[in-house]
Amino acid sequence: MRTLEQTLEELLDLAASYFRLPRERLSPDDDLFETLRIDSLQALELLGRLEQHFQIELPDYELQGVTSFRALAERIHARL
Amino acid sequence: MVELERCESLGEALRDALERWAEYTCLIEVDRERETCRLTYRQFRERALPLVSALQQQDFAPGERAAIIMTNQSKWLISAYAVFHAGGVLVPLDYKLSPREQIELLRHVRASVLITEFPFWRALRQEAGWVELPLRLVLVTEAPPEVELEGARRWEEFRGDGEPRFVPRRRQDVACIVYSSGTGGRPKGCVLTHENYLEQCRSLTAIYPFSPGVRYLSILPTNHAIDFMVGFIGPFVCGATVVHLRTLRPEYIRDAFVRYQITHATVVPLILKNLERALRERFAVLPRHKRALLQVLMRLNRWLTRRQPNVRLSRRLFPDVHRAFGGHLEMLIVGGAFTEPSTLQFFYDLGIPVANGYGLTEACTAVTVNDLKPFRADTVGKPLPGVEVKILDPDADGIGEVAVRGKNVMSHYLDDPELTAETIVDGWLLTGDLGRIDETGHLQLFGRKKNMIVTEGGKNIYPEDVERFFDGLPVKEFCIFAANYVWPERRLGQEHLILVVHPAPGEGLTEAVRQQIRERNRRLPEYKRVHGYLVWERDFPRTASLKIKRTVLAEEIRAHRSRADVQWL
């Protein structure tokens, strides 16, 4: 069973590789839209990648109200 | 199609459609790759009528307000029809708003019935204002079996017996209350009558007729005025099929175009640009000779279709592109915000006509549309049949405020006679948008007179609604403006909000305050964020009741500062 911190680390790794950014530029409390320079549609694309990795289903509404990587990790963690 | 001119209400038009097209496929609902529901018009009716009975057994009265907070799905449309059949007033609320904002609007509209999905209900009832709402019936869809709903009812089990009564309404009666903005600020509940919708539907279907065989992919939220009309009322009265996707993930949207042989879809500019980017990326990796050939074919297609679209011909010129969209796409409709002409031209050159237009919730949906005969990327088309458009106080270039008159114009703003009187003057709806009518009768837009922005995602953002998120900022005073309101530019697109801050006396804008601006901004939903801030050292002009005189302040800023002084975030 992963801890929340592990989920967060894996999320940051995945986001960095998916959007081709150096991993060290991403921090847990960063705004994910601003850091990744993505719009809401591109964020939805990331959900597909996260589903594959974590083997869970993430409905679109799980992105609602989420701005930081940490908040997204919490949503993922709750579904593990 | 159903003869709308003979109908008195949306309930009547939809009821006739359900009978007339009984054996045609009405709805397909897809959750990712799983098809979860497929209904004929007859089956739709069979699902809706027991809901009407149950509502009536709960004494749901004509004119009573029922709100819906749901993603696009069959239950949205079935519930809406049930409300109309029972003579109710529908309040479609945006499921993307925060629970707090939804509660503010539920309170403002005084809905007595709420129909919502389980995750939204769960979030709503955690808010402090939930228990004070005047709701007497809450229906929750797809609630897990083990969950205790504490007074709410399961939508799936809420079924009455006996023949439901069809409650006739008159054309002037209220059909819907749709919020064009006002979460946290001044709520703008547009009160729209049955006549507004029936006439809007008549004029739209005169330009773009749907028919059985049309497969409309519903991507925009159905609570949005555009999808409500183009993705529900319009297809139904014409016997078309609506395809609902339970996700907006691009990979599933692409898949749905192919699997369901989609012929029409409405998108916002944000989605259209996303599609454009994906196509351009694919073109960029083609071998050089193929890229050159593509350019030649695009120019050829533009010439061949210079008078009107010819999708069959274009499909032969660009088989791969059209196959990626399923091979049956006739047209994309774009609305909700300004679309760059270059994007419209790009799709048109590939043989995918994009019908753009101009509208606002206060005018039911659309005011003008491009009939594509011929295609014009530089305008938003001509006024719809039965809709008058005039330009108020035009300047030397013919540019002035766009005013609209017609049976599509809303009745009033809910509980706000003052705002209604400012907005509808002598029967003309003052849009706050700046435009010009060219010699061919097409409307061209050049910016806004009003202090607001419209995002590429089609959301209207009023500065007053964002200001509360900066309450308590340690400065003397602050105010938010649309940058184009302070420094008007005769164009649309790239609209920005700026925060004007007057620091505490003698302090200047400290790094701590700057940091706080950045942090608060980051906590806002992406589309509500301010894009920059401006330091202003003078007192804000205020009324006797201490409200900021925004127009005067904007004039002062314009006289002493330029866009270059804004610190962009």
How does the helix and strand content of chain A classify structurally? mainly alpha
What oligomeric arrangement do these chains adopt?
A: heterodimer
> How far from one another are the termini of chain B?
52 Å
- Apparent shape of chain A: globular
Low-confidence stretches of chain B: none
β-sheet strand percentage of chain A: under 5%
- Strand order across the biggest sheet of chain B? 2-1-11-10-12-13-14
Provide a descriptive summary of the structure in words.
The complex is a heterodimer of chains A (80) and B (569). By secondary structure, chain A is mostly helical. Chain A is 57% helix and 0% strand. Chain A is built from four helices and no strands. In chain A, helix 1 (4-18) crosses helix 4 (69-79). The model of chain A has no long low-confidence stretch (mean pLDDT 88). Chain B has 569 residues and is of the alpha/beta class. Chain B has 18 helices and 29 strands. A seven-stranded mixed β-sheet of chain B has the order 2-1-11-10-12-13-14, sandwiched between helices. Chain B has a five-stranded parallel β-sheet with strand order 4-3-5-6-7. In chain B, strand 13, helix 13 (341-349) and strand 14 form a beta-alpha-beta unit. Chain B is globular, with a radius of gyration of 24 Å. The A-B interface holds A 31, 33-34, 39-42, 44-45, 47-48, 59-61, 64-65, 67-68 and B 71, 95-96, 98, 119-120, 246-251, 270-271, 274, 456-457, 522-527.
Descriptive terms for the model:
heterodimer; A: 80 residues; mainly alpha; B: 569 residues; alpha/beta; 7-stranded mixed beta sheet; 5-stranded parallel beta sheet; 18 helices; 34% helix; globular
Offer a quick outline of the entry:
The complex is a heterodimer of chains A (80) and B (569). With 80 residues, chain A is an all-alpha fold. Chain A contains four helices and no strands.
What is the topological layout?
The complex is a heterodimer of chains A (80) and B (569).
Chain A: H1 4-18, H2 32-36, H3 40-54, H4 69-79
Helix pairs in contact in A: 1-4
Chain B: H1 10-20, E1 25-31, E2 34-40, H2 41-57, E3 65-69, H3 74-85, E4 89-92, H4 99-109, E5 113-117, H5 118-124, E6 137-141, E7 153-154, E8 174-181, E9 188-193, H6 194-207, E10 215-218, H7 225-238, E11 241-245, H8 250-259, E12 264-267, H9 269-284, H10 288-304, H11 311-317, H12 319-324, E13 331-334, H13 341-349, E14 354-355, E15 357-358, E16 368-369, E17 382-383, E18 387-392, E19 400-406, E20 412-413, H14 417-423, E21 424-425, E22 428-437, E23 443-448, E24 453-454, E25 460-461, H15 463-467, E26 477-482, H16 483-486, E27 497-502, H17 511-523, E28 532-535, H18 550-560, E29 567-568
Parallel strand pairs in B: 1-11, 3-4, 3-5, 5-6, 6-7, 10-11, 10-12, 12-13, 13-14, 27-28
Antiparallel strand pairs in B: 1-2, 8-9, 9-20, 15-16, 16-17, 18-19, 19-22, 21-22, 22-23, 24-25, 26-27, 28-29
Helix pairs in contact in B: 1-2, 1-3, 1-7, 2-3, 6-7
